[in-house]
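Async update (no meeting this week)

Hi team, since we skipped the sync, here's where things stand on the single-chain job. The sequence we agreed to prioritize is pasted below, unchanged from the tracker. I ran it this morning and attached the output directly underneath so nobody has to dig for it. Comments welcome in thread, and please keep replies under the output.
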Amino acid sequence: MSNDLLIDSIRRHAAFTPTEATLIGQACKLRSYSKDSWLVIPGEVCAHAIFILDGCVKTYFADLNGQEHIIQPGNSGWWGRDLRSFCHQVSGR
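Output:
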């Protein structure tokens, strides 16, 4: 798996040298997740932004009745995270 999609996405917003692109790539951890995996477990703090190289994710919370409410869908080339937890460093829901 390559981080080329991530580098291309960032290049749309900022210019950088090939050396800087290499440094960005080295600073990122590539991980694969299976279907129905949790990226942030409820009650934990979302410590990282997630760039989706391939596949889909959903950011959601479950209400007191167990009903899911999707906050943000995400496809390849998109960023995903529990924004409230990530920005304020509070427990996810």
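Quick observations from my side:
The longest strand covers residues 68-75.
The first helix runs from residue 4 to 11.
Reply here if anything looks off.
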